[in-house]
Amino acid sequence: MYHDSTSTVAYRSSGALSTPSMRATSLLIAATAAIGTAQAAIGGLSGLHTDIPRWCGKAYESAYSSFDPGGQLYAPDPSRDLLLNLQLVTRHSIYDSSERAGAFIVDARLSYIHGSLYTRPFSAHAGLSYAHNSTYTSPTATEYLSNVTHHFAQLEIEIRVAATNQLLVMGAIPVGSSNNILEFDLNDFTPRREPYEVVLYGRTASDHANWSYTASTELYYLPAKYNGSTVKIDNLHGGMLVANHATGYAFEPLVPFGFYTSCSGYLNHSLANVAAYKNLGFNAINPVCSLEDGDLGYLFDWLDGEQLWYQYDMRNSYLNLTAVAEQIPLIKDRSSLLSWFTAHEPDGIQTALNGTRLAYDLLKREDPYHPTGLVLNCANYYFEEYTSGTDYIMQDAYPVGINATFSKWNTICNATYGCCGCDDCLGELRVRTFFLCSSIGYAESAETILTIHFPMPGLGNWQKPLWSVLQVFDGEGHWSREPTPEETWVMMVLSFNHKAKAIMSWIFPASEMHELAHGKMAKVASTGLVSHFLLAADPVQIAIPGRPLLDVSYWQVGDKVMVGLANLEYIGINSTVSVHLPMHIRRIESQPWGNLSWSFEDGVIVIQGLSALSTSFVVIHVGNQPVNVGVGVFVFQSHDDNHFVIGRRKGSSGAGTYALPGGHLEHGESFEDCAIREVKEETGLDVDDVRFLTAVNSVFSETGKHYVTVFMTAMARDRGSMPQLLEPEKCDGWSWSTFDELRAMPGRGHELFLPMHSLMQQRPAICDKLERGPTALSPT
């Protein structure tokens, strides 16, 4: 919300911090005037009705009517044909001559949104279209597996330097795969400040000599610096690596953790204030001032001396490229420069759409050794245009203490009208309200509309790292109270659980309560085990059945897993909570954050109750899951009838899907005995002529469990018998079906159990015989 911009002026222009209520009206006028002056260098405001007061493109005063602000992101119309979305990026945003090896990340995902034609269209979706006000259901797994005949084909690839055609990498990757890491030799390049263009060529075996698919990227291989700092971004996991004299100019990982900080209200007072800030546990800072505000070189000398990494703030000058160019040489070789910060809520203020990109291009040209960041505030307003000018994206949704539906301006707040302090938020600690109510979250949510991956709009072909800016204030007519420390810690864990790689809260100095609360987490999250997990892996979400307000993710690095948990409830949970991890648990090693009672039982980690708004990071030693053996039985009525028994599962893995009678193979039990026993227990049918059919592999993504499913065939002894529902807690009911009908079920909204998909995918010839019935099946 705009209070950030007005506060910036206040902190720079007065000798002491003023209260929010004192500065709200007069400083808004000053900020607007300053923005207008700066924009003259680039020109224009975004959106419609630029002559009236707006925020996020929307009118917010009662004197003006609601209108569609425009600039929204919508999921594109999907293709009728399957596409191969080939993507290429360097593992790190830059390399320098101190390094000998580099790496590319290559994705070869299948998509209905981006890419080049890969296989024939799905006839079931002929004429399919998708718009923002309709619903698109992507092809089901059965259709996907039965139509994508080359799903597990290999894509032959070559990666070459565009200008010279020099070969860097040659090999093959699986079609449908992602995050393939391919190393190359940096000695093949001459260090320079300008990027090299690199091209990837791909073809499948059926393409013969033709390179049917291409992707390209820029490779920065810079002369190493032995003064100042160098900072790179890990494009695989989103973290930062930093190098300066304190690291011996070797790159070390960093989780930036700190505050936007007042200059005139705190930092300018003394070096002791800078040291006191760092001693709270913070390793990073964003001074809300710049050299444009006067001779502040001594301040940045202090920050360098304290080895405190800083974003250099250009919010009030980035739209004036002359001013940007003048500041770059004065800052770029400082030893603690972390990054350039340009636009502060450009989507809220509605600055020129090309402003962030023009400033970014200038900074990248003059200083390729440091990344650029900006912060967004709006739920869905020209996200792609504004984020084209940044290397990482910060969000500053402030949800605590707001009325999310009616504003201080006496208007309602919705997608087209009003300003309530947190754009399109719920005013609660929720993933949707807090972290995902920014355009970052919109794009992430849009991706899940289609179950086959497409890149996030505005991020080119790769997702940009996310940072979180947290609320530690109240006032200004929107925020009735500050967050509590517990709410603050929930927002922090929630941020990390949803891929945030840094915390930079608004604003310091804050209340002692918030300074200590932030410092306590900073000492844990920016050092040691927790920072290692945050930077070396991506979080994987875990749904807790019946607990939608428990937000849980895990990070895995080798044989160690860190679980992050945030209880978003304002009341405690007195019962036991179970967290199922997709790996075998050996032991619980430590709890770097929180004081929950973690234990594990039968391979499941368990918490004995949670207090309201509780948070935790727990580290677990894991091993591979044991391979389970299941038996599924095609029970036919007779040798000349192709109908078999099928039922809808419930209360277990694959609940809601259709499967055969069957179950786990018991110790010492034969396949035949298991088939006879399971069919009898579940359906009451007696069977004979039990035969082995085939076996398939299945790995359940939601649990990580690996099953070998042994498929058997059997004949009902009594041809006229009907299956009974003997285990209603496991199945909704049994019926007779054919394999043709089985294939068609997903198209009618009836999903199949994963081993049935595995059977169709891995044993298509046997499936063809099953369509014809038992007589087509020969013993094996």
Task: Look at the structure and give the CATH class of the largest domain.
Answer: Alpha Beta
Number of continuous helical runs:
18
Give the helix proportion (percent range). Answer: 10-25%
Mean pLDDT: 86
Given the C-alpha coordinates, what overall shape results?
globular
| Portion in beta strands | 25-35%
Q: How are the strands of the largest sheet arranged?
A: 16-17-18-19-20-21-22-23
Low-pLDDT ranges: 1-40, 120-152, 432-461
- The assigned structural class equals alpha/beta
CATH topology tier name of the largest domain = TIM Barrel
How would a textbook summarize the main sheet? 8 strands, parallel, barrel
Task: State the end-to-end distance.
Answer: 69 Å
What's the gyration radius in Å? 29 Å
DSSP strand count: 38
CATH hierarchy: architecture of the largest domain: Alpha-Beta Barrel
Give the full name of the CATH homologous superfamily of the largest domain.
Answer: Glycosidases
- What is the domain tally? 4
List the helices and strands and how they pair.
Blueprint: H1 3-13, H2 20-39, E1 54-55, E2 58-59, E3 83-90, E4 95-96, E5 101-111, E6 116-117, H3 141-147, E7 154-161, E8 167-174, E9 180-185, E10 196-204, E11 213-219, E12 221-222, E13 230-233, E14 240-243, E15 252-254, E16 257-261, H4 271-279, E17 284-287, H5 297-305, E18 309-313, H6 321-331, E19 337-344, H7 346-349, H8 355-366, E20 372-376, H9 383-387, E21 392-395, H10 431-435, H11 439-449, E22 466-468, H12 485-497, E23 500-508, H13 512-525, H14 528-536, E24 540-542, E25 550-557, E26 560-567, E27 573-579, E28 584-593, E29 598-601, E30 604-610, E31 615-623, E32 628-636, E33 644-649, E34 658-659, E35 662-664, H15 671-683, E36 687-699, E37 706-716, E38 731-737, H16 739-744, H17 754-762, H18 764-772
Parallel strand pairs: 4-12, 16-17, 16-23, 17-18, 18-19, 19-20, 20-21, 21-22, 22-23, 32-37
Antiparallel strand pairs: 1-2, 3-5, 3-6, 5-9, 7-8, 7-10, 10-11, 13-14, 14-15, 24-25, 25-26, 26-31, 27-30, 28-31, 29-30, 32-35, 33-34, 33-38, 36-37
Helix pairs in contact: 1-2, 6-8, 12-13
